[in-house]
Amino acid sequence: MGEVEPGADVRVALPRTVNGAVDAMTATPDAQYLAGGTDFCVEVNFGLRRPPAVVCLRRVAELRRAEVTPTEVVIGAGTTYADMGTGSLADALPALAAAARTVGSPQIRNAGTIGGNVATASPAGDTLPLLTALDARVRVLGPGAEREMGIDELVTGVKRTALEPQELVISIRVPRLDGPQQFLKVGTRNAMVIAIASAAVVLDLEARRVRAAFGSVGPVPVRPRQAEDELSDAIDWGRLSASEAAIERFGELAAQACSPITDHRSTAAYRRRAVEVVAARGLRRCLRDVA
Amino acid sequence: MSRSSAPVATRPAARTRPRAGIGADAARPDGVPKVRGEFAFSSDLWMDGMLWGRTLRSPHVSARIVAVDPSPALAIPGVRAVVTAADVPGRPTYGLEEPDQPVFASEVVRYHGEPIAAVAADHPETARAGVRAIEVVYEPLEPVVDAERALRAPPLHPDGNLFRHLVIRHGDLDATGDVVVEGTYEVGMQDQAFMGPESGLAVPADDGGVDLYVATQWLHVDRDQIAASLGLPAERVRLHLAGVGGAFGGREDVSLQIHLCLLALGTGRPVKMVYSRDESFFGHVHRHPAKMWFRHHATRGGDLVKVEARIVLDGGAYLSSSNAVISNAACFAPGPYKVPNALIDAYAVRTNNPPCGAMRGFGSVQVCYGHEAQMDKLAAALGMDPVELRLHNALERFDRLVTGQVLTGTVPVRECIRAAMAHPLPPAPSLLDPPMARPGGAGLSADHADVRRGVGIAVSLKNVGYSEGFDDYATARVRLEAGVGGEPVATVVAATAEVGQGFVTIAQQIVREELGVADVLLAPAGTTDIGSAGSSSASRQTWMSGGAIQLACVAIRRQLIARAAASWGCSHASVEWDAGEAVHEGTGERRGLAALLADGAVEAEHEHHHRPTVPLDADGQGDAHLSVMVAAHRAVVDVDPGLGLVKVVQVTTGQDVGHALNPTQVTGQIEGGIAQGVGLAVMEEIVLDEGRVKNPSFTDYLVPTTLDMPAVAATFVEEPEPDAPYGAKGVGEPPVISSGPAVLAAIRDATGLALTRAPVRPEDIALAGQST
Question: How many CB atoms sit inside 10 A of residue A74's CB?
């Protein structure tokens, strides 16, 4: 990625439309989109990034739009964590709201956006597990073309995505399912902490499916397919219950699906255990909520 | 807030109490500006035409420096100077106890982040580019990061790897008890985590000297170290205290002071430097990590017979104040208990880890984790209640420490324990609790059924002030004069560093109390106009600088009495001082400050020394300490054993304060200290990988948030200390010492696990018994 020397002028574009943003990005190679800045500005402060131009997105009103329909929720990429944590968005996607409320401090939640969380693609991105569990679709706009892809196609690795350099995340489409959803996050501090492990667990009552995804326990959010399959079969959908053995089995399979690392925040063994615990607890809560 | 009712003997009696005098909840003079964001911290310093400084630090933990070439940096437009070890005109090293730390590393790098060079440039970004451009050729070496290994390893420094080996032999070393418990304990490296990063502004002066505006804890000792390295006489290095954003021991050592002065003198221009948050983690010393072994002997009746301990503190690459920290760790290893026989074997060791030195609690914190876990173990072995065991063995006045020193001051151990225990327990965890109140907090990771409640107690002992024969003193001058409209105004001149502890408030309260004057100004603290105040450390400034101000006021009062006596033509002995006025004993005639000051201002300076102490002898015996402070803490925690997460629900305390000169400030110290103690117990640790700091940020070095902070209920145990001004002991350190060990005890109670290491990590609970 092209960088400029310290002290060199940095061009700042303040577009008001998504097309204007993409045009500004295309005009300057190696420019950087700036939404809440909660990841990018940290890198600037550490001297790790110094792009020649910044395309600021906060004036692009259409990115802040969110729409709740009977079948889906369309969340503009500029929607902040604070926005997701309350109101109709929170009613429609309570687990996304719970995830948003765990992000940083109120100041961070007022600045950071869902589009930034998706495009940054950190393994610890707090909105990613629920979006992954629900097979959310991401709309992106590039020079002359708009396209849509699954969140699992977009996030390809640790802070790596399938986005082309000029492409801008426009919105995230999340299906509305009939059924409870839960988000649980594990960190060493009771607030303002980066996830050591996190879990989104969803029941799709119509399809009679369990969906889940875990954060911070692999390079990308982990979808525990075998656990979902086994548990979907094990749940008594008529009575909306499952045996404690089945729930524990779900936790074990979830943990097996993960590929956590040991770093300064925690150990691989603990992360695996944490997933086992929060997967089972999330499932228990879903069954309790719906019962 | 409750306060015990012991009388305060030294409180001046039968006098109209001035507003906001001693014992009042006087407001901080800097309180409103700080809350409004208007207080100027050292990072806010500004001068036209100033340059920006930045430090080049070693990316290696241990390395030989083959070459340093600053020329590529100097070729960058806007870079005005680069200084390295070759540019230090005076002593190439500095240090609080011995100058063993290089101003810049020249031949060898001994820790990750050690300074190699400093750059001054027109713009902070240009300075950063300059730092990057300096070419350094390193030859990495295998670091020694284990203290036990360092004791046997080749020297990492010409002074060797053993900073100090201290043995305390007390009583009958062959004594044994009916019941013996043994354990090993470990404490991780805590950071002071002050909010205001290191910062300062150096301004070259016409006389070839330099003025340095800086956030520090002890202006004069900084000055002496800077002057030595600059090769300047001390009077040409003038220090001025800039706004300090917290210290906790982390500003006792020199950080950027010498670098800034070298850059200012080298460029002839003012130079400002502000560490970034990550650099701050490399720029100051930390709390010593500890490995400790204890063996406690007791009779079946629960009398402590003997304490044996081996304590190893990892001092990191340079000495700093390790010699004093290990002395405290050894002296207070048994805790606040009567111990007739003791063998304490204590080591402070040099390694290639980051240098460690002063931090709030200073050696007492580490050993408290050990001795308090041992007391619980002993209680279990005896089948005795742990509170009862502590009360049974509690030190009392005129008992001896294991150093043989008779405690002539107050030692209200039992009172503190009873006070901490007397507060009501919080309600049991409930299904109706807000989910965020459970362990895991905002992550909503626990349900009611996942939560286990635990309760623990811990008690601690620590010295006030400097020990082992150090001739500690503080200087203060007070001037009283008629101000605008004839109203009397007092001005206090002292080099006392206000680091947030509230000395500025106490200074005003003392002057109001002694002179009956409402208006008390504090001159800026600096080295130009007054002698040393000593360090804002060791819970000592109220005693030392407070004492100096009090005695200066007493001298002023004598002068005013002399003026009154002269005007009345009577002897001094027949003039009394009452409520800010001179009173003629015979006639009852009164003369107020305005009249007494009509002849001009009155001024007095006092240098206050405390009672001498002595160094510990070869057996670790001697009257090494001025006074001791006691605190007891009871912690209530909720633990989620499945995930190993903890919510500290409540901490109650009884603290031996002597006399609370400002109850609000005492409460502030107690709450803040408990936050720092809770932090060490459950989250605060500098994580090292072969000496490399892995978490130099507030993203990953976690300090408690408001959701992590327990409810606090405090009782001041007020038994006036005979030697101390107004009977007041220090109050800053005790809250941080036993609060953490009480939290660990409570987690043990909730989980049944041994938990011998602080901080407790989630995996220590959730994966207990498994190899991780």
Answer: 17
